[in-house]
Write a structure and sequence with these properties.
Structural class: alpha/beta
Helix content: 40-55%
Shape: rod-shaped
Oligomer: single chain
Distance between the termini: 108 Å
Number of helices: 12
Strand content: 25-35%
Mean pLDDT: 83
Largest sheet: 7 strands, mixed
């Protein structure tokens, strides 16, 4: 159960509750600097759940404590902890073996307990050492219920002894048992009414025991309290040595309320025959007296486990399945909400662009309508002028064509031929009536017309002999199609 650093600007909030005490710690970690921003430790013995919540709300309001998500620290002295060796390194096989071990180590039904475990060591011969935690569901359910009634989002239900190991990683890396595989450290955390005993090797817990008696026992009778504590520690060492885990305890680290009892580490060292040190819970973190709410630090019990959970994420997970399921639904809901919001924003942007474009097009259309209104009347007048010009042009073209036809006829008409009538159809044909004193002249005239590039399909009609004023004349009519491009218009 190694510690992994937790960083971020938002403080980590750890919440602890047993039958007698409620504690809350907010830990801020920025790089290598750790700071305790808030501490709460209050006695709640004899309070109803409603009274407890009311007191918590009052304290948080008066101390200006803001909480969003909490990591709940499950009390070690209300849990069963076992370290044992299993003949396998396969995760599935280990899981099945752990389930059998759970049935051996608790009298409760499966539905009444919460279980989690960690593989803390494996060896080349195929064996694994497993750290098992068993907690009663009713205790965890109570803490979760109170946290949710406080409107706090439960991140996870961890284990305060795991936090104590994390605290050791952060505060006591120079201890003999931290690096040496053959030497371990006895870690003693003195709380208000209990003492947590952990034996570690290379930073991992291999032994745990909760001892009844802590600060309260020492305050009532210091000498008797010290003697009782030393006796329990010797008994813990004897139990550990019987398990023969392959390393010896080389030194002891005392923390929690131990720092307020000078000479305690000396008595422990003398009784156990090892070196013993008192290490302040707040040795590796920055804390100010005004951060503590309600009482002096000397009477608030130990915060080592809670600080450790605030410094590094919990690997042991005792979160009830109902809470996990709800968290999963909430996470999916947040994800769907996020996607929905993004889609809505996209639709709003597209709608905005469409509306802007429609607005521009509408303004452009209005401008066009206005401009059309301004130029409509002049345009109509211009169209009238163009029509009149076309008529004039047509007349001019027609007159030009007639003149061209008459000029051609005049050049081709013999002196013996006289015109009477001429009919002209623009671009199509010309016909005329004439007379001649000689019949042969008529046919020569028609022949000359056929040779002209202006005329085609020349035809002489109604040729007759007439006597006019004692003169014999040949009357005739000629019809010619206009074939010249210029003449045809």
């Amino acid at each position: 159960m190694g510690a992994k650093a937790r960083s971020g600007r938002h403080p980590s909030t750890v919440f602890y509750l047993d039958r007698k005490w409620v504690k809350l710690v907010q830990v801020e970690r920025r790089g290598k600097t750790c700071r305790i921003s808030k501490l709460i430790s209050q006695s709640v013995e004899g309070l109803t759940e409603d009274e407890l919540i009311s007191r918590l709300q009052t304290t948080c309001e008066s101390e200006k404590i803001r909480v969003n998500r909490v990591l709940i620290a499950g009390p070690a002295h209300f849990s069963t902890v076992r370290v044992f060796t299993l003949p396998s390194t396969d995760p599935h096989e280990i899981k099945d073996m752990v389930e059998l071990q759970v049935e051996k180590h608790t009298p409760y039904a499966k539905e009444e307990i919460l279980v989690d475990y960690q593989v803390i060591a494996t060896d080349s011969s195929g064996y694994s050492q497993v750290f098992l935690v068993i907690a009663h569901r009713s205790i965890v359910d109570r803490v979760v219920r109170i946290a949710e009634r406080m409107r706090w989002s439960v991140d996870r239900v961890g284990f305060d002894m795991e936090g104590l190991v994390n605290w050791f990683h952060h505060s006591c890396r120079g201890a003999a048992g931290f690096e040496d595989p053959e030497r371990g450290t006895l870690l003693v955390d003195i709380n208000t009414d209990t003492t947590c005993v952990v034996i570690l090797n290379q930073g991992r817990a291999f032994f745990h025991r909760s001892i009844a008696g802590g600060l309260d026992s020492l305050v009532q009778d210091i000498e008797s309290g010290k003697a009782n504590l030393v006796r329990e520690l010797k008994q813990s060492m004897e139990i550990f040595e019987e398990e023969d885990l392959g390393f010896v305890v080389a030194d002891a680290v005392l923390t929690g309320q131990a720092e307020y009892f000078p000479g305690l580490n000396g008595e422990v060292a003398g009784a156990l025959g090892i070196k013993a040190y008192c290490v302040s819970t707040f040795q590796a973190v920055d804390i100010h007296k005004e951060s503590a709410a309600g009482a002096a630090l000397e009477s608030m019990g130990s915060f080592a486990g809670l600080i450790g959970l605030g410094l590094a994420p919990s690997e042991i997970d005792l979160t009830p399945s109902a809470v996990k399921l709800r968290q999963s639904f909430e996470a999916r809901s947040r994800a769907l909400t996020s996607v929905g919001v993004k889609i809505l924003v996209l639709l709003l942007l597209l709608s905005s662009l469409a509306i802007t474009r429609m607005s521009r097009e509408e303004k452009y259309a209005d401008a066009l309508i206005q401009k059309h209104g301004e130029i409509s009347e002049p345009a109509q007048r211009l169209e009238t002028y163009l029509a009149q010009l076309e008529i004039v042009k047509d007349h001019l073209e027609q007159r030009g064509q007639i003149l061209q036809v008459i000029q051609e006829l005049q050049q081709l008409t013999p002196a013996a031929v006289r015109w009477k009538e001429l009919s002209f159809t623009k671009g199509k044909e010309v016909s005329f009536k004439a007379s001649s004193t000689e019949m042969s002249v008529v046919f020569d005239f028609v022949s000359q017309l056929e040779k002209s590039p202006l005329f085609s399909a020349v035809e002489a009609k109604r040729v007759s002999r007439q006597r006019v004023e004692r003169e014999d004349l040949t009357a005739f009519e000629v019809v010619c199609e206009l074939s010249n491009a210029e003449a045809g218009g």
